[in-house]
Please model this.
Amino acid sequence: MKKLMLGNAALARGFYEAGCKVFSSYPGTPSTEITEEAAKYKEIYCEWAPNEKVAVESAHGASLGGVRAASAMKHVGLNVAADPIFTISYQGLNAGLVIVVADDPAFHSSQNEQDSRHYAIGSKIPMLEPSDSQECLDFVKTAYEISDKFNTPVFIRTCTRVAHSQSVVEVGERVEVPQVPYVKDQMKVMMTKAVKLAHDRVEQRTLELAEWACTSGINRMEMGGTEIGIIADSTSYQYAKEVFGDEVSILKIGMVYPLPEKMIRDFASKVDELYVMEELDPIIETYVKSLGIKCFGKDKFPICGEFSQNLVRKVMGKSVPEVFAISEGIEIPARPPVMCAGCPHRGIFYTLKKNKCNVYGDIGCYTLGAVAPLNAMDLNVCMGASCSGLHGFNKAMGKDGEKNSVAVIGDSTFMHSGMTGLSTIAYNGSNSTVIILDNSITGMTGHQQNPTTGKNLYGDPASKVDLEALCRALGVNRVKVVDPYDLAAVETVLKEELAAEEPSVIISRRPCVMIKGIRHNPPLKIENEKCKGCKSCMKIGCPAIAFNKETKKASIDPTLCVGCNVCKQLCSFDAITGGAE
Model:
């Protein structure tokens, strides 16, 4: 049967058909849907882990238990999971283990661009790279075959365009793989002699995989015109095919580590000029040049951002089709991303800006507190960095920092890696104030459950972390809970905790307005005769509020407003009515 499937859905189907039984992940765009789609197959146990490190360790444990297992994450999540992955490469498995990493060229939903192929090289783990949905499904099966044959975890690397685009997929049936008995083996304890022997095995394994890559069909030559030869992977292959068709010859790379030396040498000998087309870093190009083969790569193609068909045409000297564009001189209004109407984070950021606080932000939908008109975030680095970063900042600044600086972190992110940062605040004694934005969900990636929500991936009841008790257990005595819709209360507590001479936590608790089933208040409205056009209500950046330059009056869109009353508290003229009385 043929189906039109997203790349992520096809990956999930691949795990189903390959007999995967345990799937542990942490959500992260553009990888999130893989685990969500896999959860639709009752034969696969799926879960959200607190972070990617825990997810990989859990999947590896399932592999040691004798069943095929998997984990999926985005590129920055691989940084978190790297610690166990490097040792698992040495240790080996009992049953197949596949790790999917989804890169995000052009950082559509990420804090950086990162080329995860470096991790394959560094950890000496084979990496496959599908270029469409059919290959997403097929490469999962191939990955497990490699994993079993070579006793190694296997990476599958995708990118945003592969993960979130659709193509036709031929689906098959599930293969039930017998559980492998667990046998004790002291050589799996990675210390002393076992480590040396394991490293020797990994190096030999890499040589054998390179040989396999040349004959398995995972990489293939598509010979056309021989004036130009292109080596390409992932979406770059699709762009090359669309632009050139059979005008050129293409070596399509399906396994990006280890690369097929013999095949590359053979291909290069058959073409007059060789180009390497790959997004982000020159991984393939560097390898080709290390073989003494002349090629063009990053001297032609950009090292930053995504490629496109027209970019390839332009770089390769082909004519670029005319496109329709808005004429110059027409002012187009900016459309920056904003927090949703009624977002519970808005009141917190408004109060922080009002009090001129330094804000060490974190990774989540609340990162939008950095954009206009709130502009209430100074910096962000990675998941959990706000807590430990604030600690270091305050150690350097002393009272000048402690009395005016806060960390802001979401509930899911706090469970991911904020706890350790808070523990260092308490243990090493900086008078730091951490604000946990508890919106009862992992909002950034599309409403996934986490250990604080009381539900598991399937929506079933689960144990629920008590954030107040947890913070106290980590050594923080001052823990306050506020409703972010109550601006006066938020400001009072903020000032109290900043003035305190010890570590403190403020928990801002209000569910995300987009959670299914959340009841909203009646929408607010503006009484035109009372509105003075002062624009105070515009200071919070709510998308439900607009200002008419001609009438100099504000208005509220009743289809967007959830009646949170935050803007109502800013109006000095009682012009905003309705909502929750």
